[in-house]
């Protein structure tokens, strides 16, 4: 598989990167990525819901038919250009079933992180989709390669190295997110060395990558390409509601914070009324309806940290500023200088063809 531009648009759920964004990115010659999380919110008529309107159980939350519709529409929008992939979190309940749904939908690649996707090849067996795990260290890459080689007789088609400045879940403990040795430029040489030892696997960098200059520097260091997510939120084609996009244009650096998550990893989000109440000790958990992620143990961890991530991301998708949870990378505050622009214009900035107002 070869894309015209060495840029992957990162998967963002719930409902931030579905058919509109992923299809438009692919149509522009890059790699668009659909998030497989919470697809039941996209087609509510397909799912069973509780009295609060929440999808019931994992099969309705991560809905198979909804994902297939999203991927197929993204590929229609792409018109045969670029590539359309699916991001499937390794921590979700029904992980194997969702991977198979993505394969059946015709995904060109499967990206998987938020845990070690040690069983990914099993669920994608017989497919020609590229399999791309996300790692935060050379140690994690070596473990995945050893396991895949032993169990399935294959290796990843590429690997994404994600540093601790990304939006959403981090592959580091809270305190480790701020250590200089975990900066992306310091992690990359070790991961490149590990990738070479397994047959020169392409390494894609992610987590805080913002500008053409940074992309150029990482490629000169040996990366095959980059994954960018947060910048795509402020695009016209992004599937996020307008309230989300406008929120991103009003941020200051201190408005982006790390929270404890029901998944067990630090979670980078935007400071909103709900997050302020959470930080002040309020518990906003309303019971488990979705059973969305395995580490949450049917709501036990959500109760401890004070919120259900599926519920709150779903409310963000529905445009509820007061109660929703809005994800951002550490550099999201820079979007106020970008404004809401077409995907093609953003890609021109990221490839050095147009001046970048955020720098």
Question: What are the secondary-structure elements, in order, as H or E?
Answer: EHEHHEHEHEHEEHEHEHEEHHHH
What gap, in angstroms, lies between the N and C termini? Answer: 32 Å
CATH class of the largest domain: Alpha Beta
* DSSP, total strands: 11
Strand content: 5-15%
Oligomeric form: single chain
Summarize the structure.
With 359 residues, this protein is of the alpha/beta class. It contains 13 helices and 11 strands.
Report on the structure:
By secondary structure, the protein is an alpha/beta fold. It has two domains: 7-240 and 335-350, TIM Barrel; 246-317, no CATH class. 33% of the residues lie in helices and 13% in strands. It has helices at residues 19-27, 57-61, 64-78, 95-105, 120-123, 138-152, 184-197, 212-221, 242-248, 273-279, 300-305, 309-317, 343-350, and strands spanning 7-9, 31-35, 83-87, 109-112, 130-135, 159-162, 168-169, 203-206, 225-228, 256-260, 266-270. The strands form two sheets. Strands 1-9-8-6-5-4-3-2 form an eight-stranded parallel beta sheet. Strands 7-11-10 form a three-stranded antiparallel beta sheet, with no helix packed on it. The protein starts with 6 loop residues before the first strand and ends in a 9-residue tail after the last helix. The model has no long low-confidence stretch (mean pLDDT 95).
Topology:
Blueprint: E1 7-9, H1 19-27, E2 31-35, H2 57-61, H3 64-78, E3 83-87, H4 95-105, E4 109-112, H5 120-123, E5 130-135, H6 138-152, E6 159-162, E7 168-169, H7 184-197, E8 203-206, H8 212-221, E9 225-228, H9 242-248, E10 256-260, E11 266-270, H10 273-279, H11 300-305, H12 309-317, H13 343-350
Parallel strand pairs: 1-9, 2-3, 3-4, 4-5, 5-6, 6-8, 8-9
Antiparallel strand pairs: 7-11, 10-11
Helix pairs in contact: 1-3, 3-4, 6-7
């Amino acid at each position: 598989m070869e894309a015209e531009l060495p840029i992957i648009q990162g998967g963002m759920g719930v409902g931030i990167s579905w058919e509109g964004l992923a299809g438009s990115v692919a149509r522009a010659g890059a790699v668009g990525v659909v998030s497989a999380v919470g697809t039941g919110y996209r087609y509510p008529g397909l799912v069973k819901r509780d009295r609060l309107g929440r999808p019931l159980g994992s099969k309705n939350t991560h809905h198979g038919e909804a994902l297939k519709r999203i991927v197929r529409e993204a590929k229609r929008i792409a018109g045969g250009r670029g590539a359309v992939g699916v991001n499937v979190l390794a921590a979700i309940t029904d992980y194997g079933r969702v991977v198979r749904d993505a394969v059946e939908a015709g995904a060109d690649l499967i990206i998987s992180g938020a845990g070690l996707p040690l069983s990914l090849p099993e669920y994608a067996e017989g497919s020609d989709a590229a399999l791309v795990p996300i790692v935060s260290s050379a140690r994690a890459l070596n473990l995945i390669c050893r396991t895949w080689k032993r169990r399935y007789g294959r290796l990843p088609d590429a690997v994404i190295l994600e540093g601790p400045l990304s939006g959403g879940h981090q592959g580091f403990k809270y305190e480790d997110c701020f250590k200089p040795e975990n900066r992306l430029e310091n992690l990359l040489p070790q991961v490149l060395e590990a990738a070479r030892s397994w047959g020169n696997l392409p390494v894609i960098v992610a987590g805080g990558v913002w500008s053409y200059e940074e992309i150029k520097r990482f490629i000169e260091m040996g990366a095959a390409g980059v994954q960018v997510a947060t910048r795509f939120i402020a695009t016209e084609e992004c599937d996020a509601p307008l309230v989300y996009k406008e929120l991103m244009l009003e941020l200051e650096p201190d408005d982006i914070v790390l929270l404890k998550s029901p998944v067990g990893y630090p979670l980078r989000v935007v400071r909103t009324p709900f997050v302020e109440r959470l930080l002040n000790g309020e518990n906003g958990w309303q019971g488990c309806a979705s059973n969305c992620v395995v580490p949450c143990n049917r709501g036990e961890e959500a109760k401890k940290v004070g919120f259900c991530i599926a519920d709150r991301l779903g409310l963000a998708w529905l445009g509820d500023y007061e109660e929703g949870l809005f994800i951002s990378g550490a550099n999201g505050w820079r979007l106020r200088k970008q404004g809401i622009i077409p995907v093609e214009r953003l890609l021109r900035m990221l490839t050095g063809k147009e001046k970048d107002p955020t720098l």
